Please model this.
Amino acid sequence: MAHLRETSDKALKLLRTLPRVQIGNLRPNPNSKQNDKRGRAQHGGDKHGAGNKGSGQRQNFMRLGYETGNQPFYMRFPYEPYYKGHHMKRQYPPISLLQLQVLIDTNRIDVSQPVDISTLCNSGLLNLKPAEMEYGFQLTDEGLDNFKAKINIEVQHANEAVIAAIERNGGVIRTAYYDPRSLHMLSNAKKWFEKGVPIPNRMMPPQDALDYYTDAKNRGYLANPEEISKDRLVLAQKYGYQLPRIEDDPSFAMLSAAKDPRQVFYGLEPGWLINVVDKTIVRRKK
Amino acid sequence: MNKITRAFISVLRQSSSTCTSSTLLGRQLSYKSDLSLDKIYPSARLQLYTPPPPPPGSANKFNGYIPMDKLEITYSRSSGPGGQHVNTVNTKVDVRFKLAEAQWIPEETRQKLLKVLANKITKEGYYYVKSDVSRSQQLNLADALEKLRTVIRAQEVEVAAPSEETLERVRRRQERAARERLQLKRGRAQVKADRQGPGGVDF
Model:
């Protein structure tokens, strides 16, 4: 680039404006000269740099951190549980609404069917690692304003603004809990079916998550459906949109399709054995 | 998973020819376990529905419901720092409506609002609320509506009349203040008079 000059050009430019080089104008480069003063004679010697009297000269220092008797700072806190149990906390890898819209627009996700963890993992672009304490996906509000898809989606966590964004477009969002075994099944369903194990029940959420999933405001899967319907109107009023009449939607059946709390896969009941090779389902006789 | 469901549906379709896939899906999605919602909430309406707008509250109070089609909402660019986002995205929200014709506000409250907001109503009779507090258009809209509801509800708050004790205290205070003011005034007048020296009175 033209404005960057060579060092030599800069030096020549300086030379033109600086005063003449004289002994009085010179200075050594920083850190090029070391002080060679030895600890001897009048100005260099005498006390070995230890000063006069006191613990300094007598080399009898108090130990580091000692505060002359009161409880020193480094001993005041016997317990600092900043990261206690962090490795056991549930994690919810985020998916932004922007990402979701892009996935829908590029046909990576089929929105004519309900969307859940397995749909998202089957797209190949999102991965869930249940072994690393990942308990599902959360929807974040990045791309909130431009979200335009009408979907039936089931995630594990979503905040109010995200719920409003999805319901504004006539969609349905639900938050549901999956235990780690169910997550393992959902994240790679085909691989799991190839094991030839019957589908187990989905487990109930732990105590600290139960409040979240039984709350209609979070569209929890264990919440009262009537409360959810009412809260849809409340949210529409809060966020300023006309609540679309979902009953009049031609795909109402798909949009209102919900899994049973014990069900892991849509359309497949616990206890069924999926035969991937023969494409059949084996189930117990009633 | 959904491919499995589709495969499953196609397997069943070979066996039953008259059903459509949506009814099949409906049938398959009606698995009810021991913890299905109809067992947890036996008396609730399980199917999703759109509730109608709530009726106006008792005693002619505003119930918080605002019909969205009666408001005129426009979006524009916000001010302040923010780089490309603030320069290009319409995040500022302007919500306006004709206050005199707003039937969704109870009559009494509407009249009070017309008086209180008389200086804020435009020539055409619009009252407006603007918001550009956040980076998101939708959140700003929520904020604008919240502001609007606050303004309306403020008119319905009944300010309690001051009690007799309060009024008595206030009256005493006012009288004391007047007394002290006059005392000071008389004091100053005496000082000024004393500076004049004695008058022509012969004791």
